[in-house]
Amino acid sequence: MRRLLAAMVLAAAASLPTTAAAEAPWRDAVRAWASEHAQHSAWGVEHAERNYRLSLQLAAAEGLDVDADVLFAAAYLHDVGAIEPFRQDGVDHARRSVDLLPTVLLPTGFPEAKLADVETAILGHMFSADPGDLPEARVFHDADTLDFLGAIGAARILSLVARHPWATDIDTAAATLRGFTAQLPATLSTESGRAIGRQRTAELERFLDALQAQLRIDPARSTD
Q: Would the pLDDT of 61 be above 60?
């Protein structure tokens, strides 16, 4: 069953149109804005695109009717509030991202009637948040959570070394990732997400085991 669910997600991915993001002019404007203002190794444009694509894949695998516009906008703007110069001390980054939507998203021509659903998806995107019942929020929450697992999760967190509390050094980054393997799978809300989560958790655990072994090599036993 687990392999079947994962295969369904991959099949859904293959059936998705590859040019959907270019169909509406406002999407090009949002992507251009994010490319200029939201570059970040862990929660920048590449993370946004992965979240968008995986959200659509999960929705297809789950048979959920979702609005791709809502998912695109949420994906590209959900972490803006965590990136300088937009972040604010003491303000949750999801809340800050939502507060920026009227000045960042609406001027692009995005349909204002869909703004409330974008806000809901952004506010529920973190693994620690409850996404609620909105289909777009559920798949987006799972896509964002899955991007903290597997090889991509390791790459993202290790890219933060020496510049984020999650990764003050490699040991701290490894501890953060180990915590993710223990905590994040239980937060996934879709069956398809949980199937991918199991695979990525196992992949990340194997990497962390190897990393730990290599970090702890005894210099006294080393040979030239």
A: yes
